[in-house]
Amino acid sequence: MKSLLAVVVALLGMSQDVENPQFKYWTSCKPGSWVKMKMEMASAGKKIESETTHKLLELKDDVAVVEITGKSKVGEQEFALPTQKQEIKAKEPADKIKITSEGDEEIEVAGKKLKCHWFEYSGKQGEKDSKGKAWMSKEIPGGMAKIEVGGPDAAKPIVMVAVEWEKK
After folding, report:
1. What angle do CA 108, 2, 134 make, to 5 degrees?
2. What is the pTM of this model?
3. Do residues 56 and 34 make contact, with C-beta atoms less than 8 angstroms apart?
């Protein structure tokens, strides 16, 4: 889960010392705003599902502090994920990710039609090649409406989608 979030942060930074759009999406929110994300993937023949809540704790001029809590289910076994704090910087280098295309599209998320800006990208996730697509919406705290991440060996991409949110 951490590596997927790192890809998203790197994706949104886009290049050396540029504005981090994910930070910008959080700046339109007050502390206490949150988004619940659901992730599904398969590994070694088992279905893996995770649900994480990303809650804005603090917003400064140069960083947003977000608490991530959640649970994961592997097969029939469910367990809590350790609580994490993520610092999302206003400016972020991202030389590991290459944006291959981008545009605007309306998608359905949590039963709502949302106008999104999307990015297709390629890069490295650890030592492995990775590619994906992320849809960002101004209506969702932190912006992330949906992300699909995969690699050359992946039969199906990892999909993470917003299922609930509250913007304060």
Report:
1. 30
2. 0.80
3. yes
The range of the structural domain enclosing residue 90 comes to 2-161
30 within a domain of the structure (yes/no): yes
* Alpha carbon distance 40, 102 (integer Å): 24
Phi, psi of 3 (to 5 degrees): -65, -35
CA distance 7 to 148: 11
* Cα 61 → chain centroid: 21
pLDDT over 60 (residue 96): no
Residue 166 lies in a domain: no
Q: How many domains does the chain have?
A: 1
Give CA angle at 26 (22, 27), nearest 5°: 115
> Alpha-carbon distance 16 to 31, whole Å?
28
Question: Would you say residue 99 has pLDDT above 90?
Answer: no
Give the model's pLDDT for residue 2.
Answer: 47
User: For residue range 26-70, what is the model confidence (pLDDT) as tens digits?
Assistant: 999 999 999 999 998 877 778 889 999 999 999 999 999 999 999
* Alpha-carbon 92 to chain mean position: 15
Q: Is residue 168 part of a domain?
A: no
